[in-house]
Design a protein that fits this description.
The complex is a heterodimer of chains A (390) and B (455). Chain A contains eleven helices and 21 strands. With 390 residues, chain A is an alpha+beta fold. Chain A folds into two domains: 184 residues, FAD/NAD(P)-binding domain; 135 residues, 2-Layer Sandwich (D-Amino Acid Oxidase, Chain A, domain 2), CATH 3.30.9.10. In chain A, the strands form four sheets. In chain A, strands 1, 2, 8, 9, 10, 11, 20 and 21 form an eight-stranded mixed β-sheet that branches. Chain A has an eight-stranded mixed β-sheet with strand order 5-6-4-14-15-16-13-18, sandwiched between helices. A three-stranded antiparallel β-sheet of chain A has the order 17-12-19, with no helix packed on it. In chain A, helix 1 runs parallel beside helix 7 and helix 1 runs parallel beside helix 10. Chain B has three domains: 207 residues, 3-Layer(bba) Sandwich (FAD/NAD(P)-binding domain); 138 residues, FAD/NAD(P)-binding domain (3-Layer(bba) Sandwich); 75 residues, Orthogonal Bundle (Arc Repressor Mutant, subunit A), CATH 1.10.10. By secondary structure, chain B is of the alpha/beta class. In chain B, 36% of the residues lie in helices and 22% in strands. Classes of the chains: A alpha+beta (390), B alpha/beta (455). Chains A and B meet through helix 7, helix 9 and strand 18 of A and strand 4, helix 14 and strand 24 of B. Strand 18 of chain A pairs antiparallel with strand 24 of chain B. Bound molecules: flavin-adenine dinucleotide (2 copies). The site of one flavin-adenine dinucleotide (FAD) has 36 residues of chain B, from helix 1, strand 2, helix 2, strand 4 and strand 8. Chain A: It comes from Microvirga brassicacearum. Chain A: This is FAD-binding oxidoreductase. Chain A: Pfam families: DAO.
């Protein structure tokens, strides 16, 4: 039996767990980061890589902007830029109703100080001549960015390790108990951790660690279909998204075009499967060829998805447990956790070290599910195979 | 009537289709290639005048027999050439043709998708003018082109001498055949090879014909590097006595035997298991080729067995389908076929000892050699990624971090060498290094195949 005494045990070595461990270590805390597989191999390593500011939930902007500031300083923070690129983000409308929608999103963004350009068809033709005719208007935000998700989480965990975090891979947390002020974390290896705080950052697998302490959330696992093409001459500089979610695409400077699209598909966290139905791949290929006609002859070389936790109001759970002092939840990121990841880690470290954070997190409290919650419009549109919620 | 679909129009697929057609099942035969026959027995493109008798040599009779067998069932099957199966979902195949994408559903599926070359990189292998050995044959048989005028055939494979001879017969200058397996290993494998005396004799006749023609035939060489400024100019080898030798050439055909094209089988749900002889992950089948519910595998796509085994195993898999559908019960014939397939595949295992995959060479590769030519990832980049803290020691993770195997070919070329590199650098058994997972599409498909047929 290996017994470790620590200040904090972080369950889950995704982006959220790794950033949390990193910031805690910088504040001098002894941290054990426990990952059942290897760090950054789940949602955090398979996602699309968008660091999008446009069109977010209004109450999330303070957190989101704090996170973007960290992304922009990534190289200073971890010594590696992980292909962070301020590509800008083009939010595209196909008709007047969608134009109203992006204009409304833009108003919200602008109220938080984000600069948005409103582009009509003629301006689009001048600035982004490769866009298909179907796009009648768009809003452009220059501060939105992208980064390489395959690289970021391992890089953050590596620096956390060098700052003294004990990173344990291939070790699944089985049981978390609390006696007095101490948590006992048992695993499927001979490792046991005793600590004063537990951060539940176990992604789509997180629910059992909430339910063990008498609270719950209607979390269910799913993922959007994605694909990547062969390298093509580089011409799509911004990240491109259509309001209906049929196309979320970007091109990296080495030439490959990456695409994600809705509707999402149910995934299986037990068997570790995130299927991509071929019909969705075909539908997305067709949509992409309409939005960027020059890609018609470009070849798709691989599809994939990931296992992400979603909640019916399309907002994550972030914050202290409402039953158990010392337990902090951060899961169910509903497809937008990559962008806010560093911000979430920073806030959680503040909660643990300072007892509170300045960043408003109340919309994300786990207790909200004790009442009837409003099901998000996105939730209704963006999934096809919603499994019975647990 | 049951809907039986056969994927692959090589010897395995054709013999399966013949057996099914004989029972009036009207099978669907899908083949990515435009001309029937598969890799070994492909009919030349219409309009291409190739002397197939000269090209096929001792195999000409089998070639004609297979093509004739196909011609005789042509109107009893639904044959769809130029049709790539790119994904499988449940009992539906997704296919892509020049016209677009569509689906084909099946009650039983026989996959006979064949094999491709296995490559071990060496310095200079990404220079223009270096081809896979099978690619050198394909360009000859499909397009009637040589890969160069002065060609070196290198590696270790039963096809090495065959390909060299085919090139010679049609007028190319074969500057050398450099086999990396020592002659002694071949002699030691001879008793087992004698289990298929005709095939062994054929191999020996290729060798002697080349020697008689004065082609330098080297055994037990180490391939040191391929040189050239902007394309191949020479190959440098160390011969079995330790001397460095240089062969000027304008093309190199490189190959270390074949590896099954098992991607579709894996997508269809076949269980993959590690095979210590070939050091590859192969789909698991029973003696008749069953790999799961309604899934049957035949030919080189399961385990390398050569053309004769492909024909027999195709027929056998079709018999298994017929018997599972309750159509035939002729057990005695199946037993004979089963024995034949078993014997032919065992023979290939002996060949694997006579033509050795140079697993150990990967340790000696210098850091600047490219391992993944699609993404241009070097051996050194992979070693460095593995060496850092929390570095990956499993091939899919190495791929995620380095991009090795992430390009157009999806690791079909670099996969085996990557497995060796990861295992040797991590100091773990190769089966612990894992294998690259497959995903659709099994080969690249253009966005335009997805159009809803209006343009
Ligand atoms: C296909 C896809 C595309 C996406 N695109 C974007 C995008 O463009 N922009 C964006 O902002 N967001 C995007 N997201 C969402 C984003 O990836 C996630 O919100 C984010 O990665 C969540 O991080 P995480 O650390 O909570 O989860 P994860 O990365 O899933 O990490 C949780 C970790 O916990 C581990 N774990 C689970 N149970 C245990 C246990 N019992 N013991 C030990 N460890 C355990 C898991 O193995 C896993 O590594 C996308 C998601 C998907 C799936
Ligand atoms: C490049 C190459 C050249 C060879 N040359 C010779 C030779 O000259 N002499 C010799 O004896 N042996 C040769 N071989 C060995 C050969 O593999 C076997 O002798 C024999 O052809 C195996 O028969 P098969 O039916 O299993 O597969 P193959 O003959 O390989 O037939 C498989 C068929 O399946 C098709 N296919 C594969 N994937 C898909 C897909 N996803 N969708 C649709 N169709 C698909 C292929 O296009 C091919 O037509 C060669 C092998 C290779 C790889």
């Amino acid at each position: 039996m290996t017994r470790l005494i620590a200040d904090v045990a972080v369950l889950g070595g995704g982006l959220i767990g790794s950033w949390t461990a990193y910031f805690l270590a910088r504040r001098g805390k002894r941290v054990v980061l426990i990952e059942k597989g290897v760090v950054g191999a789940q949602s955090s390593g398979t996602n699309f890589g968008n660091l999008r500011l446009q069109g977010r939930f209004p109450g999330q902007y303070p957190l989101s902007l704090r996170a973007q500031d960290l992304w922009e300083r990534l190289e200073d923070l971890i010594g590696d830029s992980c292909e962070f690129d301020a590509t800008g983000h083009l939010y595209c409308a196909f008709d007047e109703a969608e134009r109203d929608k992006i204009d409304h999103y833009a108003e919200v963004s602008e109220s938080y100080g984000i600069r948005i350009e409103h582009l009509d068809r003629a301006q689009l033709k001048r600035r982004f001549p490769w866009l298909g005719r179907k796009v009648i208007a768009a809003t452009y935000s220059a501060r939105d960015a992208t980064a390489n998700p395959r690289l970021v989480t391992p890089a953050v965990a590596r620096v956390a390790k060098s700052l003294g975090v004990t990173v344990v891979e291939h070790c699944a947390v089985r049981e978390v108990r609390k006696s007095g002020d101490t948590f006992h974390v048992d695993t499927d290896t001979d490792l046991q951790v005793e600590c004063g705080h537990v951060v539940n950052a176990a992604g789509a697998w997180a629910l059992e660690f909430a339910e063990r302490f008498g609270e719950t959330a209607p979390l269910f696992p799913a993922g959007p279909p994605q694909f990547v093409t062969e390298p093509f001459p580089y011409f799509i500089t911004p990240s491109v998204q259509t309001v209906d979610g049929s196309v979320i695409a970007r091109q990296i400077p080495r030439g490959n075009v990456i695409l994600a699209g809705y509707p999402r598909t149910a995934a299986d966290p037990i068997l570790n499967r995130a299927p991509v139905p071929p019909v969705k791949t075909l539908a997305a290929m067709e949509c992409l060829a309409e939005v960027v006609p020059a890609l018609r002859s470009c070849h798709v070389i691989r599809v994939w998805s990931g296992i992400e936790g979603y909640l019916p109001d399309m907002l994550p759970v972030i914050g202290q447990s409402e039953t158990t002092p010392g337990l902090i939840h951060a899961f169910g990121f509903c497809g937008h956790g990559f962008q806010i990841g560093p911000g979430v880690g920073l806030c959680l470290s503040e909660i643990i070290v300072d007892g509170h954070t300045e960043t408003p997190l109340s919309p994300f409290a786990i207790g909200r599910f004790q009442q009837e919650i409003e099901v998000s419009d996105k939730f209704k549109r963006e999934f096809d195979a919603v499994r019975k919620t647990p | 009537m049951s809907n039986v679909v056969v994927v692959g129009g090589g010897p395995a697929g054709i013999r399966a289709a013949c057996m099914l057609a004989a029972h009036r099942l009207r099978p669907v035969l899908l083949d990515e290639a435009r001309n029937v026959g598969g890799q070994g027995y492909r009919a030349p493109s219409p309009g291409l005048r190739l002397d197939m008798d000269a090209l096929m040599g001792g195999e000409a009779a089998k070639y004609h027999a297979l093509q004739a067998a196909f011609a005789s069932i042509r109107d009893q099957i639904e044959y769809r050439p130029g049709t790539l199966v790119w994904a499988i979902e449940g009992k539906t195949l997704h296919v892509a043709t020049d016209e677009g994408s569509s689906t084909v559903s099946f009650d039983a599926l026989i996959l006979a998708t064949g094999a491709m070359d296995r490559i071990m990189p060496l310095p200079g292998w990404t220079l223009p003018g270096v081809f896979a050995l099978g690619g050198a044959q394909v360009s000859l048989k499909d397009q009637g082109c040589f890969i160069g005028r002065r060609v070196a055939f290198c590696g270790s494979s039963p096809l090495l001498n065959l390909a060299a001879l085919q090139y010679r017969k049609l007028g190319a200058d074969v500057v050398a055949v450099c086999d990396t397996t020592p002659l002694g290993a071949k002699v030691r494998a001879a008793p087992q090879l004698a289990a298929a005396p005709r095939t062994m004799m054929r191999g020996i006749s290729y060798l002697t014909s080349l020697m008689r023609a004065g082609t330098p035939m080297l055994h037990g060489v180490t391939l040191l590097r391929i040189e050239g400024k902007s394309r191949v100019e020479a190959i440098i080898v160390r011969d079995c006595r330790g001397r460095e030798r240089r062969f000027a050439c304008d093309a190199v055909a490189l190959g270390y035997g074949l590896k099954p094209e098992a991607q579709l089988a894996e997508l269809a749900g076949a269980e993959m298991r590690f095979d210590a002889t070939s050091r590859l992950w192969l789909p698991k089948i029973d003696a008749d080729g069953r790999a799961g519910r309604s899934l049957y595998l035949a030919g080189d796509s399961v385990v390398i067995g050569g053309a004769d085994a492909a024909e027999a195993s195709g027929e056998l898999a079709a018999r298994a389908v017929l018997s599972d559908l309750g159509i035939v019960h002729a057990r005695s014939v199946a037993r004979g076929l089963r024995r034949r397939v078993f014997r032919l595949r065992r023979f290939q295992r002996a060949l694997a000892r006579a033509f050795v995959w140079p697993a150990n060479r990967v340790k000696d590769l210098s850091d600047d050699v490219a391992l993944c030519r699609c993404e241009n990832v070097s051996v050194g980049e992979i070693r460095r990624a593995m060496d850092q803290a929390l570095g990956p020691i499993e091939v899919n993770r190495v791929k995620a971090i380095t991009r090795c195997g992430m390009g157009r070919c999806q690791g079909r070329v670099c996969g085996p060498a990557l497995q060796e590199l990861v295992a040797s650098h991590a100091g773990i058994p190769i089966e612990a290094a894992g294998r690259l997972r497959v995903q659709a599409p099994v080969k690249p498909i253009p966005l335009s195949v997805a159009r809803t047929l209006a343009e």
